[in-house]
Amino acid sequence: MGCCCSDYRLVTSDNDKTFSVETEILTTDFGNKAYLAIIRGGAGGFQIVVDGKRCPLHKTSTFAKRSQCKYAVNAGPFTSYLNGGCIGDVIINGTHLVDDGGDFVAFGVTTKEEWFIGHIGRSSNRADELGMRDLVTGLGDWLLRDGLIIPQRGTASAPRTSIGITSEGSLVILQVDGCEHCVHQRGMTLYELAKFLVSPPIRAEHAINLDGGGSSTSVFDGKIINHPTCLDYIGIKCERPVASIVCIKEI
């Protein structure tokens, strides 16, 4: 159930289900680890976390511990590795904190605990009309829309962070390790990521790409569970400060 419009989807969440976070470490065709979380009953505890309108940088794990997130990943792209600055639209608890516009797709939740995925609309009152509670802008276009793969083949490989929804209204977070400019730790293309998301065991219906590369980080119960590569050219484990995170709290 939900609204099917030309440039966005509004999907009824599974908030009638008991809250649970089901995690699994998968392996891609290229040997990279992929960290999957399927979160049921999570719309009520879904939050976007930033540190004010200027979106200064903090590590994903720092954000997650401060906000007491059960599960967290890095979220939207930002303008500067030094000063941060969120790109696109950011809505926190109903307040349009950042209104940068742009053409990238976004992901969020309404006050009715419906999932929103798609374009928020630069010149419309869509956020207000839909009662958007929390929202963050991703990086690029859709990965999956109505179960169909949107990206073309042949894009660059990199570590990836993505977020989506199953047909049952459960939240899906998939983060794939890699090293963006390393020879032997290639990560995934956007096409490969979309194909991975739509296939078993995930079977996502809709999904978008979040910030990736050296920013890609997964935190579960306050601990980093993946292998972030903040330097991009060297595959050593290091966590990059980011401007925003997706935070799932148990409420």
Describe the structure.
The protein is mostly beta strands. It has one domain (2-248). It is 9% helix and 40% strand. It has helices at residues 60-67, 126-130, 190-198, and strands at 2-4, 8-12, 20-27, 33-40, 46-49, 58-59, 71-74, 78-80, 84-86, 89-92, 95-99, 106-110, 114-118, 132-137, 142-145, 148-149, 160-166, 171-176, 204-209, 218-220, 223-224, 241-242, 245-248. Strands 1-2-13-12-14-10-11 form a 7-stranded antiparallel beta sheet. The chain is globular.
Order of helices and strands: EEEEEEHEEEEEEEHEEEEEHEEEEE
Number of helices: 3
Largest sheet: 7 strands, antiparallel
Mean pLDDT: 95
The proportion of residues in beta strands is 35-45%
What is the number of domains?
A: 1
Number of strands: 23
Shape: globular
Low-pLDDT segments, ≥5 res: none
Q: How helical, in percent, are the residues?
A: under 10%
Rounded to an integer in angstroms, the radius of gyration calculated over CA atoms is 16 Å
SS-derived structural category: mainly beta
Distance between the termini: 24 Å
Strand order of the largest sheet: 1-2-13-12-14-10-11
Describe this structure in a few short sentences.
With 251 residues, the chain is mainly beta. It has helices at 60-67, 126-130, 190-198, and strands at residues 2-4, 8-12, 20-27, 33-40, 46-49, 58-59, 71-74, 78-80, 84-86, 89-92, 95-99, 106-110, 114-118, 132-137, 142-145, 148-149, 160-166, 171-176, 204-209, 218-220, 223-224, 241-242, 245-248. Strand 15 (142-145) and strand 16 (148-149) form a beta hairpin.
